[in-house]
Amino acid sequence: MLTDAQIAAFVADGFVKVDGVFSAETAADGREILWRATGCDPDDPSTWTSPVIRLWDHSEEPFARAVTAPPLLEAFDQLVVPGRWVPRITLGSWPIRFPSPEPPGDDGWHVDVSFPGDAARDDYLSWRVNIHSKGRALLMLFLFSDVGADDAPTRIRVGSHLRLAPVLEPLGEEGATVFDLHDFYTATADLPEALATGEAGDVYLCHPFLVHAAQPNRTGRPKFMAQPPLLLREPCSLDRPDGAYSPVEQAIRQGLGLGAAR
Fold first, then answer.
1. What is the mean pLDDT of the chain?
2. Domain that residue 98 falls in
3. Which of 60, 124, 158, 166 lies in the 20 to 30 Å Cα band around 188?
4. Number of domains in the chain
């Protein structure tokens, strides 16, 4: 279970690291599957010809085992509240990052959007995020390899989720696209930066409004990380008569200056 201090840090900072959610053996089994999918040879760096190879949803047993690990399910209940999140057995997209002098082309600061709005569902560039975080409960980072400071760890702007809430509030249900928020990302450059480092089996649970970015892998090891969303059954409520706000909702309310409850 997450401690009270970890939950408080999630609300204040926008993320919490959960150590050892799944075993090193599960991570190794998963990497074996992913190496085959990349078409690269793990023992021959000359085959690592791209700075990033994107793989899509995998539902093989190691991945289902990781995303259904009991400590993780408990953390979902603590951060989102039982019954408000959608169970999953797959791990979403995989940006596999290889050491390369070439720019990856996907390392800009952003927040993850969560619903298609009026556009086609497959037009992801027009997807949106709104004040109720429609569709998304959490951004999750599953480390399937050890990730040190030189292994292209995800960059996190600590506390940036609190600043996004007042930007989104006046936009109502329509919300904003990832591109609409460009000036907002620039305005968060003064915040402290954290790196999502850790060992294979660790998972970062992040607030859906958290500003984050990839970075090039210049000299490190190939990095295997999944970044699936945890989906919401219904949008966040910021005005609950019983005051039973999840920590995700508490953070949005804090960003709006509403406090923990009314």
1. 95
2. 4-255
3. 124
4. 1
